[in-house]
Design brief:
This protein is an alpha+beta fold. The protein has one domain. 35% of the residues lie in helices and 14% in strands. The chain contains two helices and three strands, in the order H-E-E-E-H. Strand 2 and strand 3 form a beta hairpin. The protein starts with 17 loop residues before the first helix and ends with a helix. The relative contact order is 0.18.
Length: 79
């Protein structure tokens, strides 16, 4: 009898930008929550503040701007 192979969990797709997708995935692992929206997904920080995730960014600075916004929210988390 064959044993069922363990299913591989696909990683969640947050954005078409590789850098934003990787950052969002690591934040979810760190305890942030992801909520789907009508147009943009949102990350919810542990303190309850929300950050929209650009799904299809057209600006080359989008990943830099996202990283900046994450840092600003992370500074608010520290006591």
């Amino acid at each position: 009898m064959h044993e069922a192979a363990p299913r591989r969990r696909k990683s969640m797709h947050y954005s078409k930008d590789k850098k934003i997708n990787a950052m969002a995935g690591s934040l979810v692992i760190q305890g942030w929550r992801y909520c789907r929206g009508k147009k943009h997904g949102k990350l919810v920080a542990p303190n309850g503040r929300m950050l929209p995730i650009p799904g299809t960014p057209s600006d080359w600075r989008a990943s830099l701007n996202f990283r900046r916004d994450v840092r600003r929210l992370a500074l608010d988390l520290q006591p």
